[in-house]
Amino acid sequence: LASSEAKQARETLISRGFDAESMENFGVGYAPKGWSNLAEHLKSKGFSEDELVVAGLLTKGDRGVYDRFRGRLIWPIRDANNQVLGFGARHLYEDDKGPKYLNTSETPVYHKSRVLYGLDLAKKAIAKRRQVVVVEGYTDVMACHLAGVDTAVATCGTAFGEEHIKVLNRLLIGAGDSPAEVIFTFDPDAAGTKAALRVYGDSEKFNALTFVATGPDGLDPSDLRQQRGDKAVVEMLDRKIPLFEFVIRHRIEQFDLVQLESRIAAARAAAPVVAEITDPALR
Predict the structure, then answer these.
(1) CB–CB of 163/106 below 8 Å?
(2) Residues 222-256 pLDDT 10s
(3) Whole-angstrom Cα distance, residue 110 to residue 101?
(4) Cα(247)–Cα(254) distance, integer angstroms
(5) Cα–Cα distance between 72 and 237 in angstroms, integer?
(6) Cα–Cα distance for residue pair 29/74, rounded to 1 Å
(7) How far apart are alpha carbons 12 and 133 in whole angstroms?
(8) Inter-residue contact 196 to 186 (CB < 8 Å)
(9) What is the pLDDT of residue 176?
(10) What whole-number distance in Å separates Cα of residue 192 and Cα of residue 252?
(11) What is the widest separation between alpha-carbon atoms in the chain?
(12) Predicted local distance difference test score (pLDDT) of residue 198
């Protein structure tokens, strides 16, 4: 990342409000352009092509093997024991026709349905505070941690699912006067709503209360910190609402509540959500 070629990579991070110290703390790197930089380096260290393909570092094509990550910002994805399992890579150059974010493909150790980016840095705070903040991207995790929210993690290019819940439940077990919390930050668009509804379907599997927090003007944590500072990120999370309330509001919004018939229809749509609330006083 300190090389001359990586200037655009550094500038991308600096423009998002990340300094050299934060880049180092999160292990951010740069994959140089070219088709075989990593292959040649690792072969010189004694690794075989087959091993590098299995590890997800090289890709097999019609013309042989080549580096999977080229000309991109790189984030190492570690497990709770600080072992690197794979990588996430962000698009930088216009001539790169690949996706904006490219992750390691499934390998014997990297399973995207089980890994959470930032878990290595957040695990102690999660266990101590019995709180998890689930965000959507690598820079969102960085922004939250730098704003003092050191319980933030992110999924790696996949929906939040049952295996992720199991990982977090193991960390949230513990005695405490108040129940554990899982706070999701979804974008306030159709995709974000869909993600929230999907998580709600699994919410009873958490050993915790579930909440949703959305940024003002639709800003994600990274943009919010960049534009309005650390305090704004903390305030966004303080304004969280229960996940069931988010779902009820979504269902009611589908109806015109002026007419009695539409109010009845809205009540019928919301009632199953209310019925599933286990706390009788809350229900």
Answers:
(1) no
(2) 999 999 999 999 999 999 999 999 999 989 999 99
(3) 16
(4) 11
(5) 31
(6) 5
(7) 25
(8) yes
(9) 66
(10) 17
(11) 75
(12) 87
Of 153, 162, 176, give the one whose Cα is nearest residue 78: 153
Strands 152-155 and 116-117: antiparallel
Whether the CB-CB separation of 137 and 163 falls below 8 Å is answered with no
Residue by residue, what is the 3-state secondary structure of the chain?
A: CCCHHHHHHHHHHHHCCCCHHHHHHCCCEEECCCCCHHHHHHHHCCCCHHHHHHCCCEEEECCEEEECCCCEEEEEEECCCCCEEEEEEECCCCCCCCCCEEECCCCCCCCCCCCEECHHHHHHHHHHHCEEEEECCHHHHHHHHHCCCCCEEEECCCCCCHHHHHHHHHHHCCCCCCCCEEEECCCCCHHHHHHHHHHHHCHHHCCCEEEECCCHHHCCHHHHHHHHCHHHHHHHHHCCEEHHHHHHHHHHCCCCCCCHHHHHHHHHHHHHHHHCCCCCCCC
HSE of 85, CA atoms in CB hemisphere, 13 A:
24
What confidence tens digit (pLDDT) does each residue in 118-173 have?
Answer: 999 999 999 999 999 999 899 999 999 999 999 999 998 888 899 999 999 999 98
pTM score of the predicted model: 0.91
């209360």: which residue's tokens? 209
b (16+ CB within 10 A) / e for 218-252? ebbbbbbbbebebebbebbbeebeebbebbbebbb
How far apart are the C-alpha atoms of 31 and 70, rounded to whole Å? 5
Any residues with CB less than 8 A from the CB of 201 and at least 6 apart, and which?
none
User: Measured between alpha carbons, how far is 169 from 182 in angstroms, rounded to an integer?
Assistant: 10
